[in-house]
Amino acid sequence: MNLNATLFFQMIVFFILAWFTMKFVWPPLIKAIDDRRQKIAEGLAAADKGKSDLAQAQARISQIEQSAKADNQSRLVEAEKQATSIVSAAREEAEAERARILAQAKQDAELEIERLRGSLRDEVAALAVKGAEQILRREVDAKTHAELLNQLKAQL
Which residue, among 128, 120, 119, 118, has the nearest Cα to 149 in the 3D structure? Predict the structure, then answer.
């Protein structure tokens, strides 16, 4: 056994194995590694995009919340204004009703006063007639002296 021949054959086998590995084994391994590297890069890019989308969504959500709060605030202010106008309208209507009731009561009181004055005049006239009757000791004819009684009522 020649050491040089063994070494030479081992070198040839090594180079054949290296060539076979580089020709048939290495390319699929490199391709698998490159595919895996590309998938990892795409995953990282998707994660970055997801983070940016999440930040945009959160910004949009906060903007929508602020818009909703402002809208609610404006609706609340509008409701308060409407409530105030309804209360003031009801107050004005109540004041008008109160004034109408007071005017009606005054008118009714004046009519009652006039009616009472008329009945008082009639009673005073009747008392005057009775008094005159007692003074004269005779009955006074109401038909003949109706004009006198009307004048007496008018003076009272």
Answer: 128
Do residues 132 and 148 touch, judged by C-beta distance below 8 A? no
Classify residue 87 by its DSSP letter: H
Measured from the Cβ of residue 72, the count of other Cβ atoms closer than 10 Å reads: 10
Q: Please, which residues have CB within 8 angstroms of residue 121's CB and are 6 or more apart in sequence?
A: 153, 156
Mind listing the pLDDT tens digit for each residue in 111-127?
999 888 888 877 877 77
Match 């009616």 to its residue by tokens.
115
In whole angstroms, give the CA distance from residue 43 to residue 31: 18
CA pair distance 127, 143, nearest whole angstrom = 17
Cα gap 147→141, rounded to integer Å: 11
What pLDDT, on the 0 to 100 scale, is given for residue 142?
Answer: 61
The 10s digit of each residue's pLDDT in 50-76 is 999 999 999 999 999 999 999 999 999
